[in-house]
Design goal:
Elements lengths: L9 E2 L7 H14 L6 H14 L3 E2 L3 E2 L2 E4 L6 E11 L8 E10 L4 H13 L3 H9 L3 H9 L8 H15 L14 H11 L20 E7 L6 H16 L2 E6 L10 H6 L2 E6 L14 E4 L1 H6 L1 H14 L4 H4 L21 H34 L18 H16 L2 H14 L4 H13 L3 H20 L11 H21 L1 H16 L3 H17 L4 H14 L6 H27 L6 H15 L7 H6 L1 H22 L2 E2 L12 E2 L1 H25 L31
Parallel strand pairs: 1-5, 3-6, 4-6, 7-8, 7-9, 9-10
Antiparallel strand pairs: 2-3, 5-6, 11-12
Helix pairs in contact: 1-2, 3-6, 3-8, 7-8, 13-14, 13-15, 13-21, 15-16, 15-17, 16-17, 16-18, 17-18, 17-19, 20-21, 20-22, 20-25, 21-22, 22-23, 22-25, 22-26, 25-26
């Protein structure tokens, strides 16, 4: 690790008072050494990773980290804060802060070394030594696993142990026999008693037949830090409790699969993850604790106790009982995310799971239908089936073909929505009742409201069935026979007999209301949808507005009001990236080099109706960019509705302008919103004070003015 951290990358008197300022101070040291090519772009990547999950850990540790294209080589920077910096840990601020930077294409060897550091952060002696380090060189030597000058022999031994520990970080190291890392396990086993098979068998004559055995998987979104810290924490807790723990770390450096014999011999399973567990079906049929990766770092003993309790009761969790349901193609929701999330958060994730799988059908079907109308006219929906009549040389035949293919794709929207909402709740066993319930919703004209209800009911029914104690002999047929049969029957009964008619009536009422919108009401709705589309730029609120619009046109003959809503939603969604592109063009000095480069791409993204093109700008300066985008989006949405623009296609941006009703006024609405947002962004950015050391760049050309950075250390390219 000698090339990853040097004394120049250590700050023992870090004075930052926020996590953003701490990351910036350490990143500046990386940039000064040429290891970060674009400070602002790198910090945006760090912020994006931080937004996924706080990186603070119990024990006063903060580990902001990311993989970024702006990093030239794997690098560590370390800061020690006397006052502490809040990184979101439950026990308070962090005084030891590690900024871990990995290139987007970092090789496995470097990532393995970084993972060894993550493991050492769980070593109390290591963190104590860092807190008492007297100079930057000594701290850097400790992190590298070297013996600092003047250190005693014991410290050297500990560093040696750290080096050996890191050597096995990549592929599922263990404190049990399957791990094969006796050099790591033996010292801890000596104090814990008999936690490892690697100990001399003569030490165990009074033991029971064998200790309790656990296999575990750890993984996090980046796969650099939390993955390996969770593994180390579980292993340490296992040694303390006399339990064999074998961990498979599914990190950025890849993973080495646990030996099937080790899995077969395990008494329980712990899955500590924030991304999908790969090849999850290997752990089917065992007592399983499924939780977030930070739970394994902060309370490993509780997780071990929980899985032992399940094993003692003969309890197999729903995920384990499903067999194939636990395969590597795991649900995007992954058991509702991190432990402790509220029901509202889980519900949002379940609904977004369904929407995310539905959107491709919306795009493909809608564009095909729109192309059919463009080629064959609006009477093409009355054309006979192309199975009965198709002439290769007639444009109308091709138009009918496109329209009918699009119609078939659209017919999947509600079943896919319902099926994958259930999938998000209950994994693969939820697919059958979800798709059945969604199809019934179409049959009874319950539409998208029926699909939402069917998905939630299907997931709940499957989860209820999985909680019923099942004899071991019947577990093999549960996922392929019993669960699909019972859940489909229950959901079908509820949809046909109990709740289907009320939902269908509610769907009809909403449709009639939309059809009756006119004048000021329509304009206000357009403004509201524009605000929603620009609030989180592709996030949940944006998706709610988009789904509302596509629900209206996902029928054979959508109403005029539904097509106006679709037009307003797409127009508003194009505003933020186009406005950011225009702002970087007319006032480039207000943006740094990375933002100006992103502005070039934003032209294409905005024109293609990809709102996410504005995310880099919003992440770097949310208080100026997001409100400006919302105002512009509201203007565009309101004008689009006022002009009466209509759209039959659910996607496509400027490339489907020929399919838009009142296309010239539609473009005027977009241009108006873009100009409003551009003007607001320029004014707000121009009002901020220039950052010291950026005079050559101009008033806004450097970093965020709130960052407490000296001018002499501004590495941003002018």
């Amino acid at each position: 690790m000698s090339d990853m951290i040097t004394a120049d990358l250590v700050d023992l008197d870090l004075s930052a008072d926020t996590k953003e300022a701490a990351a910036r101070a350490l990143a500046e040291r990386m940039a000064a050494l040429g290891r970060v090519t674009d400070l602002e772009g790198f910090l945006a990547d760090v912020a994006a990773r931080e937004a996924q999950m706080p990186t603070g850990l119990d024990g006063g540790i903060g580990i902001p980290h990311c993989r970024s294209e702006h990093v030239t080589e794997p690098t560590l920077a370390f800061g020690r804060s006397a006052a502490g910096v809040d990184f979101g840990a439950a026990d308070g601020p962090a005084d030891l802060i590690f900024l871990i930077a990995a290139p987007a294409g970092a090789d496995d060897a470097h990532l393995t070394i970084l993972s060894s550091l993550a493991r050492q952060l769980m070593n109390a002696e290591f963190t104590t030594a860092l807190r008492s380090a007297g100079d930057a060189a000594a701290a850097a030597a400790l992190i590298r696993g070297e013996e600092p000058a003047g250190a005693d022999a014991g410290a050297g031994d500990r560093d040696g142990d750290r080096g050996r520990d890191g050597a096995g970080a990549e592929g599922g190291s263990a404190s049990g026999s399957a791990g094969g890392h006796d050099s790591v396990a033996v010292p801890a086993a000596a104090s814990a008693g008999t936690a490892t098979v690697g100990s001399d068998e003569t030490q165990r004559p009074a033991e029971p037949a064998r200790p309790f055995r656990i296999v575990a998987v750890t993984s996090c979104p980046t796969g650099i830090a939390h993955t390996y810290m969770a593994a180390e924490s579980l292993e340490n807790a296992g040694r303390e409790e006399g339990v064999e723990v074998v961990v498979e770390t599914q990190g950025s450096a890849g993973f080495t699969r646990l030996d099937p014999a080790v899995i077969a011999a395990a008494d329980g399973v712990i899955l500590a993850h924030d991304v999908a567990v790969r090849e999850k079906d290997r752990f089917a049929g065992k007592p399983t604790v499924d939780t977030g990766v930070k739970a394994a770092i902060n309370r490993p003993g509780e997780l071990i106790g929980e899985v032992r309790g399940k094993a003692a009761r003969g309890e197999v969790t729903a995920a384990a009982a499903d067999g194939p349901a636990g395969s590597g193609g795991a649900t995007p929701v992954e058991r509702g995310g991190e432990s402790g999330e509220g029901y509202g958060t889980k519900l949002r994730k379940w609904l977004m799971s369904g929407v995310s799988y539905m959107v491709p059908f919306v795009a493909a079907g809608g564009l095909l239908i729109a192309l059919g109308f463009a080629i064959g006219g609006y009477e093409i929906n009355k054309a006979p089936s192309v199975m009965d009549h198709f002439t290769w040389t007639q444009a109308d035949s091709w138009a009918a073909l496109l329209f009918q293919i699009g119609g078939v794709a659209f017919a999947f929207l509600v079943p896919v929505l319902a099926g994958y909402i259930a999938y998000g709740m209950a994994d693969r066993p939820g697919l059958v009742p979800g798709f059945v319930g969604g199809s019934i919703a179409l049959t009874i004209n319950a539409g998208f409201l029926g699909g939402l209800a069917a998905g939630l009911i299907s997931g709940a029914v499957v989860l209820a069935i999985q909680r019923v104690p099942i004899p071991k002999a019947l577990r093999g047929i549960m996922p392929v026979v019993v669960i699909p049969l019972v859940s489909a029957a229950v959901v079908g009964f509820l949809m046909f007999v109990v709740i289907g008619k009320p939902i269908a009536s509610a769907q009809k009422g909403m449709t009639d209301w939309l059809n009756g919108l006119s004048g000021a009401n329509a304009v206000l709705l357009g403004a509201l949808l524009g605000l929603m589309m620009c609030f989180d730029l592709g996030g949940p609120v944006n998706k709610v507005a988009y789904t509302f619009a596509t629900a209206g046109i996902a029928v054979a003959s959508p109403s005029d009001s539904a097509m106006k809503i679709m037009a307003a939603v797409m127009a508003a969604g194009m505003v933020p990236p186009l406005a950011m592109a225009l702002a970087t063009t007319v006032r480039g000095r207000l943006f740094n080099a990375a933002e100006r480069e992103n502005g070039k791409a934003a032209w294409v993204l905005g024109a293609s109706f990809i709102s996410e093109g504005a995310i880099p700008f919003a992440a770097a300066d949310p208080l100026r960019v997001i409100p400006s985008s919302m105002v512009g989006g509201a203007v565009t949405g309101a004008l689009s509705m006022a002009f009466g623009a209509t759209l039959r296609a659910p996607h496509g941006g400027v490339f489907v302008v020929p399919l838009i009703g009142n296309p010239l006024l539609y473009l005027v609405a977009i241009a108006a919103g873009v100009c409003v947002t551009t003007a607001l962004v320029i004014v707000l950015k121009g009002l901020r004070k220039p950052v010291a050391g950026t005079s050559a760049q101009g008033p806004g050309g450097g970093a965020d003015p709130s960052a407490p950075t000296p001018g002499a250390k501004q590495p941003v390219a002018a």
